Amino acid sequence: MSKERTFSIIKPDGVSRNLIGKIIARFESEGLFVVGAKMKQLSRHEAEGFYAVHSTRPFYAELVNSMCSGPVLLMVLEGENAILKNREIMGATNPADALDNTLRKLYALSIGENTVHGSDAPDTAQNEIAWFFAASELANNQ
Ligand code: GDP
């Protein structure tokens, strides 16, 4: 076990349906600490860059449009095995495949509007955090 940081987004469908509190409460109840947070309306440039790895996929335009459709809550979560723990809490990408009580099973509308994002590995977590947060915006509170 080791303390890690991961990057999390509550996507526009989660923010617009007033789910911020429920989602953060779930992270906190599972031992993840919010050490950075900000609300932001992503520009197309930011959304395209963030999801550049998917730029050749058929759903890319829909994904970028969805991520720009309203404000998102960007967060850095910290805790033991935070990257894997967050992925487990979120559940499978497609809510139809997500396990019971995962955030996507509980809240996602579809595979495109699946409410939350979470980094999938240490290198992506580091890059995604750096993409949106300066070191001075992150707490060192533990
Ligand atoms: P994640 O790490 O579980 O978020 O999944 P991926 O990195 O594979 O995909 C990034 C995001 O693209 C997902 O969270 C979905 O919102 C979206 N996405 C992935 N696959 C599809 C798809 O087949 N159709 C649509 N419309 N969106 C998809």
Describe the structure.
The chain has helices spanning 12-16, 20-29, 44-50, 60-67, 82-90, 103-107, 122-132, and strands at residues 3-10, 33-40, 72-80, 116-118. The protein has 142 residues and is of the alpha+beta class. The radius of gyration is 14 Å and the shape is globular. Bound molecules: guanosine-5'-diphosphate (GDP). Residues 54, 59, 62-63, 93, 111-112, 114, 117, 120 line the site of guanosine-5'-diphosphate. Guanosine-5'-diphosphate binds at residues 54, 59, 62-63, 93, 111-112, 114, 117, 120.
Strand content: 15-25%
Principal-axes geometry comes out as: globular
What is the residue-averaged pLDDT? 97
Rg calc: 14 Å
User: Which stretches are low in confidence, meaning pLDDT under 50 for 5 or more residues running?
Assistant: none
What helical percentage do the residues reach?
25-40%
Largest β sheet strand count, sense and barrel closure: 4 strands, antiparallel
Total number of strands: 4
* Largest sheet, spatial ordering of strands: 2-3-1-4
Order of helices and strands: EHHEHHEHHEH
- Based on secondary structure, the structural category is alpha+beta
Head-to-tail CA distance between termini: 16 Å
Task: List the ions, cofactors and other small molecules found in this model.
Answer: guanosine-5'-diphosphate
In DSSP terms, counting alpha (H) and pi (I) runs of 4 or more, how many helices?
7
